[in-house]
Amino acid sequence: MTGTAPDVRTTSATATAGRVSPADRASADPGDPGESGASPVAARVTDAVKVYGRGDTTVRALDGVSVGFPAGRFTAIMGPSGSGKSTLMHCAAGLDTLTSGTARIGDTDLGDLDDRRLTLLRRDRVGFVFQAFNLVPTLTVAENITLPLDLAGRGGDPEWIDALVDVVGLRDRLRHRPAELSGGQQQRVAVARAFAGRPEVVFADEPTGNLDSRSGQEVLGLLGRAVRDMRRTVVMVTHDPVAAAHADEVVFLADGRLVDRMASPTADKVLDRLKAFEVRSP
Amino acid sequence: MRTLLRLSRSSLRADKRRFAGTFLAVFLGVAFLAGTLVMGDTLRSAFGTMFGDATAGTDAVVRGADVITTPGDSRGQRSPVDTSLVRTVERVPGVAAAAPQIQGAGQLIGSDGKPVGGQGPPTLAGNWITDTRLNPYRLAEGRAPARSGEVVVNRGTAEKGRLKIGDTTVLRTPDPVRVTVVGLATFGGENGMGQVTYTGMTQTDAEKYLTARPGRASSIQVRAGPGVSQEELVRRLDRVLPEGVEAITGQESARENTDLVSGQFLTIFTTFLLVFAGVALLVATFSIHNTFAIVVAQRARENALLRALGAVRGQVAAATLTEASAVAVTASLAGLAGGIGVAAGLQALFPAIGFPFPGGDLVLRPLSLILPPVVGVAVCLGSALMPALRAGRTAPLAALRETAVDTSGASRPRAVAGGALLAVAVATTLTGVLVSPSVWLAGGGAVLALVAFVVLGPVAAGTAVRLLGGPLDRLRGVTGGLARRNALRSPGRTAATASALMIGVAVVSLFTVFGASLKATMDRTVSRSFAGDVAVSTPSFGAGGSGLSPRLAPAIARLPQVATAVGLGRGVAEVDGKGRALTVTDPVALQRTFDLGRVSGDLRGLGADGLAVTRDEAARRHLAVGATARLAFTDGTVRTFTVRAVYGRSELVGDYVVTRAAWAPHRTQDSDTVIAVGFKHGVGTAAGEAAVRKVAAHYGDPQVQTRAEYARSSAGGIDMMLTLVYALLALAVLIALLGIANTLTLAIHERTRELGLLRAVGQTRAQLRAMVRWESVLVAAFGTAGGLGLGAFLGWVLVEASDGASDSSFTFALPPVRFAVVALVGVTAGALAALRPARRAAGLDVLRAIAE
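^ Those are the sequences you sent over. The predicted structure of the assembly is below.
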């Protein structure tokens, strides 16, 4: 685990080298329409603004972000703490609502949906992997995996679920309770659950944040395989450059704005890019 | 859906401890309800069987047809029949045997010199009917009375008075009669007819002591010969009976007796218990609501995860309600079983504690099997509904937050709504009390006030806990301060926990205030109306007791120390068609020892056909001095009386006064209920009292009391009632305390990490325990304070509304000592409730607690 955000902040050697020029930001901000036009977009936010609090305590968590997440791709959202990356994901996934702007899953505008329809959309078209507390402790592994399908009253596709169980390697643990599994195993169950209903897009919020590096690698590997072998779409929030390196593309957020995009990232490249933000606003 | 069901089931299993409180609350409430219903039915049926058995040999009863009922006496007074009628009856074809039955009041003195029974049920004396099949009592030991002065007593009475065969004692009829016990009897296979005491004497003795003159009996018991049905017997009897005498079948007579016991005693008894079952269930509602509210708050992350994964609101709410149903159904069924068990246990227990209730199988009517579980489930589901709906509204994002803290409570809309409700409640109540007196208006306002208190609870919780906990900071330092802040954390939860206790305490204080007010009223009545120095009375209550010998008052009057001694007897008559109690006395002496208020006309000139009436009654019945009224007596005679005086005050004396001369021709078994004695000038109370006591000793040794003692003993029954009420309310308070304990346990579970942190930075186990305990005490103190306030207010409303709405006047009294005791009990109980949660909290492993 190298290059976490606080570490980056203490390194001030490359003070100006990585600073984003106004030109860079201008070209990055519109969300790179050229690329999103090329392949279909699984999820997208446009001019997204999210304001928390009222009066003196107002926080603009998102300050006019427009970004699309192409289908069949693994996108990582990165940025320092408080950059709005989690908020962006929550709003794009329909867990939270925008103050202004629009969020879409496929062609559906989430702003048009009431609580019930939003819930059904999450259930049927979106998958989630959270940092922690991903599983219902009182249900078995098998029950946890099929939970969204059971909630919908759908049987799901037994072959697909069967295949998923093999991919995450938990066949011998199906009858166990989450408490009987290691953190990495729990997170693999969460990944299987996220893909169980073949959602249009899976959102993962710091999925490796609570794991040791080996377990983290396994989970990231699973997410990557799901995208490349099974043509799924994954959007992952992380602050770990190593995790981000598993993605096809990284989008960088700072102060609630989209500041950069990077295709074919490596851990080093991402780390360098992050260092540039950190020193800019000490 | 299957998964959701499974989810509910597995969370139930995982959270067993959390639902223990809910289970107990529902269980206790339902058990109370079921026990009351089953016991009521069982007793009703057992009394029916007992009367049926006891009077199985009686096929018909011949008795006076006229009955005069006065308010408060449902049995009424029947005219006696002539014993000579027995001859006539015996000659009727189909009659095998007939015997006169004489029944009157007679109280036995036990071997310890104290009267037996008399605290509620009647103390009966009668002639021992020698025809064994006509006598409801059966001789169990010894023999029947043969000579004057020999008696048979029922076994229960003998046991209570420690009387054996061969013992000699006194029977107050009310004249003291020396009697020797020669036999012991049973009634319908039991040791007695409930708590009723019975003394059987010879026919001659019975006629001498229990009737006004020989040749009169209460009724004639008739047995039919073979092949004659009860109905046929009654038809034949009817042909020969004179006017004013009727015959009923033995079955009808048994049913009347059963109905009398059921109506007079059992219905009041069961209604009373049902009210308390209701209070217990109301308190349970709060405990249950609280448990689910906390469980839902604690499960916020799990529910949020479900919501994030696509569970719609209804699904999450349904999962919580499923849990509630499971607890409700289990607890209700267990409660039903428990209630039946309690009824069975009480049936076994009553005889053991000297309460000879008749035996017999438990009676399980469908209603008592269905109603309690239905109420239990309804209460449980109703209480869990709001928390369940809140669970459904959980924001999906809550899954990602560190902890979900329940800060519901002190919102502005709640304060506004509660304040408005309270204003309406107070306005309604005050209108009902002060402007246009109406018990209904006042009662409605009181209920609204209760609701307002519950709504305002969370708003008040903050201020109240800060206020009550103020001294804690200084007294207990950091521990006290932490306890106070913990109690303040979630005002909604604190208020809901305290509300349960508040309602329990409010009902306790309501009864306390009402009891104290009744006593104060009695006190004021005596001090205002009773102008004598000492009162002579027999300590009795309800239908029991035999009263005082009418010869005692003249005997006391002859004492050199005594200026006036006036006895107040009781008679009944129909005054212009309405049954009324008459006070039979010497009106001249009456005026000297009782303050009768303003008197118009002249009490001295009542004579044998004169009547004195209170001003209120006179106004109601359109009577005035000089008017006439027709009085019909139980012996069938009707006389015209002239109103010769109208007096102002009815307390103690009653609405109608007639002279002894006027009553004498119609009297039955004569007795005085109280004798008021005024001493001559210069005679000390102690000396006078001693002289009176000496004379009274010859007349069955009744109680001689000073004015103050008399006032206090007049209110004696109230204390007995209060004790019973407290015992019953203990259950409601227990449920409330279970609620506090449960909330604390859940709160500790929730704060495991925090408690671990406190321990890690150096809080000792003792300090931790103290912290939990003080939090509990604060919540209990808040509930108790609210309950005392609400109870005092409701008591005031009840007293004032009764005062305004009825013609008797009530005095409001707030008993400070009792209130202090209730407060102390509430706070102590709070500390007790914290025992287990505190021990659990102190037992936490520090490292594990932090890691959680």
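Chain B is about 55% helix and 15% strand. The longest strand of chain B covers residues 562-575.

Shout if you want it in another format.
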